What we know:
The chain is an alpha/beta fold. About 40% of the residues lie in helices and about 20% in strands. The structure holds 5'-O-[(R)-(carboxyoxy)(hydroxy)phosphoryl]adenosine (KG4) and zinc ion. 5'-O-[(R)-(carboxyoxy)(hydroxy)phosphoryl]adenosine binds near residues 10, 163, 180 and 281.
Amino acid sequence: MKILGIETSCDETGVAIYDSENGLLAHALHSQVATHAKFGGVVPELASRDHVRKLLPLTQHVIQTANLSPNDIDAIAYTAGPGLIGALLVGATFAKALGFAWQKPTLAIHHMEAHLLAPFLEGEAPEFPFLALLVSGGHTLLVQVEAIGKYKLLGESIDDAAGEAFDKTAKLLGLPYPGGPMLSALAEKGDPKKFYFTRPMINRPGLDFSFSGLKTAVVNTINNTVETRFIASHKIDDQTRADIARAFQDAVVDTLALKCRRALRQTNLKHLIVAGGVGANIALREKLKSMAEDEGANVRYPRLEFCTDNGAMIAYTGYRRFAQGERDLDDIVRVFPRWEIGIIN
Ligand code: KG4
Ligand code: ZN
């Protein structure tokens, strides 16, 4: 079974073909970083228009790379939510139009479920049941996964998502969009002993997260550290920026690790998988690896390029769900900008 996967939920156009026999046959990604950089963040309308421009050439590219013709494709899977409404509509409409033209079934995919299944694109498939930490720009979720489609939400962020906190803090430190990877690179040069930010919500029971307070802590630190005459011009020396970035990253990483440890103990699970854009953070990967070893558990990630948004995870999730006999029941284009993961069960 060969599935074409289409991802357009935010600022990346991803298209891929997954084959149940031979794995991933081709994948292509267009990042819109250059389009949005000058605005300091994603501009939804520009994102939608860029997806319109890129979907057809990327689809032609993956079909050629895989040496297939449209007839060889068995079904088309597309991200139907959560995400930006305009961007989702472009992908969903494109998928439905292809399905109509090629006479192939289509299937709406939940973007976070696809992140969660991304580690299955790697050699050795994770074992069920497992705990999943999903950390992206829009979501921070801890999910107990019994099987494909059997998800129990254990905890989530009550305010900013982890990636959102990285991006907002990066902006405060004067870094360009997209801030997360840049902040992480800056943190490498920081002195871990210079500043300390309280780990949010760790003294309360439960598995929810809150990251917006960290942003305020960063603002206060900047204001207290930067010489008054520099505040107006936002001048802050490079070493201090690196030290603050380091303290921020340490606080986020420690908090995520502590909640994962708590969730592993609470559920008695021995496998942890980590996915979503922040899963590309090296400090987080190292910390979770040592925490998991400590708990007698193992931790798995997708390769770095499949932590962030991509078409391969949509094609793979499409394959797993089509194989269970699922498909869209009509030709109506529907998207779900706010689609809770608990509802896809
Ligand atoms: O999963 P993703 O590509 O898109 C969403 O579904 O949101 O995640 C993007 C988020 C952004 O907030 C980005 O700054 C963050 O992931 N991110 C990182 C790193 N790479 C991407 N955050 C911290 N460290 C990184 N290396
Ligand atoms: Zn994502």
